[in-house]
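quick one: phosphoenolpyruvate bound model?
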Amino acid sequence: MTKKLIIANWKMHKTNTEALAFAKQFKNTQSRKAKVIVAAPFTDLATLSVAQKDFQLAAQDVSAYDEGAYTGEISARMLKEVGAEYCIVGHSERRIYHTETDAMVSAKVQALLKKKITPILCFGETREERDSGKTKVIIKKQITKGLQGVDDVSEVILAYEPVWAISTFQKGKKKSSASEGDIAQVHAYIKDLLAKLFGNQGQRTAVVYGGSVHARTCENFIKYDDVDGVLVGRESLTVASFQDIINTVE
Ligand code: PEP
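yep, here:
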C-alpha cells in the first residue's frame, strides 16, 4: 500500500524553541499508512533533523543557483546538509508576493533534483481564473512549465492548491474551501493529464491537495485514489489539529 503524504507547511511560524516543542510532543500515529513531512522555516531545519524521527523535513523555498553572490538565498546543497529531503517550490504566496514565474519555479525544481531533494511543486488557479472557466488551462500550463526538462517526473510531488481555497487569501473575504466534488474532479483531470503527457512516469507521480484542509474536510477526500495526500497550512501549527488530520488516513 502506498502511504498517503501528509505535509505540513508552517510558513513563517515557529522559532527554534517552538519547533522543538512541537517535535517533542508529536507522534506519527498512522506511520504504517501515512508519511509525514514538515516544511519548516530554514532556521528550524538543522535543529529538527537531530531532534526527532517522526517526520521528514522539507524546506519552503530554494535558490535556483548552486552558489554565489546571492544575498539572502539558500542553496539546495545547504538544504541537503541540514537534512531537508523535500522542498516546496512555486507556492502561491511566492508566486504572488514575490512575483515568481513558471520559469523561476522550473529552475528551482532543477536545482533540487540535482541534489536529490524531492520538489513539492505547487500550482493552482485563482478565483478569477476559475470563474472564467480557465482552471484546466492554468493547471496544464503550470504543470508543464514547472516540469520542463525533468527526466523522471515521478521524482516530483505535485501539490494542487487552488489559490482561492488557501486560508492566506481569504482574510476579510467570504471563506470558500474546495468541496469534495471540486477536489475529486480536478485531481482526476490532473492524473489523466500526467498519464497523457508522461506515460508510466506520470502515472506514478503523487498529487496532493492543499487549501484550508481541516480534519473535518480531509476525511471526505483523503480516501480517493487520485488524492495522494494533503498539504496543510494553518491546521498544521498545533500538534492536536495536525494529528487529527493524520488520523483521517485509514
Ligand atoms: C498552504 O498555504 O499551502 C495551505 C495549504 O494553507 P492553508 O491550509 O492554511 O489554507
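The pocket of phosphoenolpyruvate is lined by residues 9, 161, 166-168, 210-213, 231-234 (CB under 6 Å).
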